[in-house]
Every structure is written in structure tokens, then in C-alpha cells.
Amino acid sequence: MSKKKKKYYTVWKGHNTGVFETWEDCKAQIKNFKGAQYKSFTSFETAKKAYKEGSKEYIGKSKTFKSELSVEQLKKIGEPNLNSICVDAAVSGNPGKMEYRGVVTKTKKQLFIQGPFEEGTNNIGEFLAIVHGLAFLKQKKSNRIIYTDSRTAMSWVKKKKCNTKLNRSDKNKPLFELVDRAIKWLNENKYSTTVVKWETKAWGEIPADFGRK
């Protein structure tokens, strides 16, 4: 199972402000706070810098991503293939309300979105997003590739198995019905679409990211 990427959360307006190391801590500051302002960053230094500069420099603006990798590392990774779509999932809580979507990599035009589903996890959402993308591209007879930032979901798709530890319940029954359909589709369909890992450290957040954390 891949290690979840670390994020830091800057809260400009909330019950308490500053930089927080977990989404749970950040969520506690913005919950039920009218006009809360917050944003996630991939390093503590960047988050701290953003806090000092103020929200106007980051909220509602498209900041140019600057990779912390070396020139040699970036050259080895290369640029993303724009003949592609990207998929991603978002969840509030663990488990919690989950949704996923797929977008055109180059333009971020949304191609599909599902949810929110009750009692979901990010891994399940990432898995469903890939399978949805595979079915979508097969139906369109498209030669595009799929980018995902989840190695776990890629592994599940390859094994044709949703290896989640989440227990089934009446609350998440609709979600697991979708999971069962996804597994059935993988077992009954052949596809030529390549699923590729999105290199977040080199390219920034995946274009399908919901931008909520």
C-alpha cells in the first residue's frame, strides 16, 4: 500500500488560525465558521509562507507550482502526457462523505462526477474513479491514458479487487453496489487504456483534485 502524501493546512480565518499538520485539526478550525479561509500545501515552509503573505495571495488565485525536485529528477520524470484524463477522489472524514471525478488533463474540463456517497474512503473513491475512467474511454473509443495519484487504487484495478477494510453497512450500501459493479466490469471487459501514476512532486496537484484540502 502506498504511503499517503503529507499535507500541511494553512487556516487564515477560523476558530484558530495558523498552520496545521492534519486535516482533522484543520477541519476543527473551519467547521461551523462562516467565511473560513484555508488551503493545503505540500510542505510546512510553503504553508507557513502562505500564512504570512495572507489569503489574498492564494485563495482564488492560480499559483504557479514550483517543484522541489532537482533539475536532474525533473528531467528524468519528464512532462505529463496531455493526451489523457485525470481522476481523483475527495472524502470528508475517514470514513466520510466521498465523491470522485474525471477531467481532461489539459483543460480541467469535467467529464464525469459521482457522489457524494456516505461512509466512503479515499481509496475506494480513487478505485471507482479509475474504473469509471476506463469504461468512459472505452465507450468513447479514445486512445487517451488515465492519470491517478493513487498507487493503491492502481493496484486494486490491476488485481480486479477492491481490497478495502471498510465494513459494509446500510449507510454505504449504494457505494458498495457501485464497487461490485466496478469489479464486475473489470472481470467482463478488456481494455487497452494505460493507467499511469501522476507525479505530484514534479507536476503539482493532479488536475482532477477537488481543491478542498
TrEMBL record:
Principal EC category: hydrolase
Organism expressing this protein natively: Winogradskyella vincentii
Domain RNase H type-1: 79-213
SUPFAM superfamilies: L9 N-domain-like, Ribonuclease H-like
EC number: 3.1.26.4
Reaction(s) the record says it catalyses: Endonucleolytic cleavage to 5'-phosphomonoester
Protein's UniProt keywords contain Kinase: no
Name assigned to this protein: Ribonuclease H
Family assignment from sequence similarity: Belongs to the RNase H family.
Gene3D superfamilies named in the record: Ribonuclease H-like superfamily/Ribonuclease H (3.30.420.10), Ribonuclease H1, N-terminal domain (3.40.970.10)
Pfam families referenced in this protein's UniProt entry, alphabetically: Cauli_VI (PF01693), RNase_H (PF00075)
Subcellular location: Cytoplasm
Family matches, as InterPro entries: Ribosomal_bL9/RNase_H1_N, RNase_H1_N, RNase_H1_N_sf, RNase_H_bac, RNaseH-like_sf, RNaseH_domain, RNaseH_sf
Biological role: Endonuclease that specifically degrades the RNA of RNA-DNA hybrids.
Record key words, sorted: Cytoplasm, Endonuclease, Hydrolase, Magnesium, Metal-binding, Nuclease
Chief site of localization: cytoplasm
